[in-house]
Structure formats: structure tokens, C-alpha cells
Amino acid sequence: MSFFAAVACLSHTCDSGQGLKNWIKQVLNQDLAFQHIKIIYPTAPARPYTPMKGGISNVWFDRFKISNDCPEHLESIDVMCQVLTDLINDEVKSGIKKNRILIGGFSMGGCMAMHVAYRNHQDVAGVFALSSFLNKASAVYQALQKRDGALPELFQCHGTADELVLHSWGQETNSALRALGVSTKFHSFPGLFHELSTGELEKLRAWVLAKLPGEMERPKE
Known about the structure:
- The chain has 221 residues and is of the alpha/beta class.
- It has a single domain, classed as Rossmann fold (3-Layer(aba) Sandwich).
- It contains six helices and eight strands.
- The strands form two sheets. The chain has a six-stranded parallel sheet with strand order 2-1-5-6-7-8, with helices on both faces. A two-stranded antiparallel sheet has the order 3-4.
- α2 crosses α3.
- The longest helix is centred in the middle third of the chain and has 20 residues.
- 37% of the residues are buried.
């Protein structure tokens, strides 16, 4: 099969790329798959994680605490930005255009995707963040103050009953990015905790197809 586009789905804390793929399949009762799109599920490296008292976990970066009101652990974030940049560059070398790549994820994965796209790859097709947030003084906001040109659209979903990553944190992130010039979509899911749901994955599927249409769906130039 020849792929015309790619989506990188970043897993959440303590999970692997395969674990996220399996979780999505369990929720949807089928894989998240498209004929013309390649789905990539990278796995975060094992590292000491401060919120787990230094225990080893597969996380994209470290946090001082799970809060939107503390400094970011930029040293670990920047290392992973480079790792994911290498992944994006590999897809470009394989023939996929940058504007046919989406990057996103669940929880910490969504946060990581926003850092990668809005700080380093403002020419990707879009970003999605499920149950995710940025810290109030995020380096992402600082980078966007120096933006030049159009920015990738952001698609967010968040459960109103999320007790780990508060719904208000997701809303604040969305509002801050919109104020900085990002076109955003934000979908609230009443009663949903820190988890995936069929409804949000179906909305995500529709958004992916809108951003990365197949050859037959592309508008004529």
C-alpha cells in the first residue's frame, strides 16, 4: 500500500505505543485505520518519573508535579522533541510531505505533540490532544509569540469528570493557544474521566479525514 499521509499517536503516562493502539481498538471495537494514512504509535522511553517518586516509567518527559501551575521540565521535553523530530524527518524522507503529517496523543502524549508541533514543526497539518494540557508558562506559548505564518490547527477533547488532568486545564490551554493565533476545536465530554471514549475517537477520525483527505476527497485545484 502506498501511504499519502501519516499520523503519529503518542501514548499516555505508563503506556507503550502498542498499548495505546490496543486501547483504541478496545474502545472502537476495531483499529483506528485509514486506507491512505499510515498510523505510527511510538513508545516513550523508560525514565525516572518524579510524580511516581522517581519510579521508572515509560513517559515522554518528567514533571515536577501534575499541575498546570509549575515550571515545565524543559530538559527532558527538549530531548524528546529531538527524538520525535527524527521520526518526522524519517517520514518526510520516505516521501510524505510535511503538510500531510498530523501529530497528537492522549494525556502526556498530547502535551508532547503540542511542544513538537508548535515549537519546532509549525508546518505540519495539525495537532490533536486528548485529555491534555500545557503549563501556564509553557515554552509553547513563548514560541508562538515569535510565530511567522500560519499555524497547525489544534483538535482537543476532554472529559468533564477528569480528576487527573482537570477539564479546566484543557480549556485554559485551548484559550491561550487560540489567543496566540492557533485555530482550535475543543470538545467537552460530560461525565468522562481520564480515559478514551467512542464518541471522541469518532470525532477524531472525522477530523483526521478532514485534514488528510484521500486522493478522491481532495478538492480540485
